[in-house]
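Sequence in, structure out. First:
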Amino acid sequence: MKSMGNMMKQAQKLQSKMMKMQDELAEKTVETSSGGGMVKVVANGKQQIVSLEIEKEVVDPEDVEMLQDLVLAAVNDALVKSQEMVNAEMGKLTGGLNIPGLM
């Protein structure tokens, strides 16, 4: 019974640390770009896009599809990098354990 109590305390500590880390990750950001830097995207650790910059030189009313492709590429890359950042930080906390439902 005592070991079960210790395990519960450890689980509560881990949960507390994870909540703190999630708050910290909301403040951390990753930046990426596409089109040679013509489209820049910044995402945070909550997989939210926090900024998007488009250089005016890439805005061509005759080729809207190219701009759409550049934006999609940059956004998708930012979200991937954000998830990688979260996974790396969570891995530090959990010691590399893959615990389903934590993220």
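Second:
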Amino acid sequence: MIRLNNVNKVYRTDKIETLALKDINLHVAKGDFLSIMGPSGCGKSTLLNIMGLLDNPSQGTVAIQDQAASEFKDKQLAALRNRKIGFVFQSFHLINDLNVVDNVEIPLLYRRMSGTERHSRALAALEKVGLSARTKHFPSQLSGGQRQRVAIARAIVGKPEIILADEPTGNLDSNMGQEIIDILMNLNKDDQTTIVMVTHDERIAEQTSHIIRLFDGSQVN
């Protein structure tokens, strides 16, 4: 599903050059649930952004389902992200002025789809994460765990084959965090959704099928 070959990422300013990733070689197969671990500043989020086609490597190649990202123009990359990849973030990134179902519909606005179908898909996604009773609520009326469930519903509403999750339990207590991981585990098991998750929590990472560890931008296992 995702292949990275000899990926390096360098950030440059006028006076400083920072090597964020060094010689990353990674193959994520269909149906994998991969955790990325490492200390703060080791390149985890940078790696996830490159895997999600939100950022480009300085060197090396990135391929999604054997399609090299470098072969696509920006508009094609945006379409690929919209259809193939769902994103879940630590801070939820919900729009406070929209209710739950409208937040979930957002990725579908970029597809040729009727409002009725968008609404139906959003309701189905919310049912999958156990929030059917909260469709008209606003984010400010929800707990942190509920807001993350909305974020997951938004990520899966377009039926992506890949979910990239950046610290999805980072702002939650252990019980709520486990509920979120259980939802992701069910998506992985029931729908064969490929999931790559950045986490600091060893207990959570051990529940996934593989763990990749980074240190100073390099793989250490």
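Remark: The chain has one domain: 2-219.
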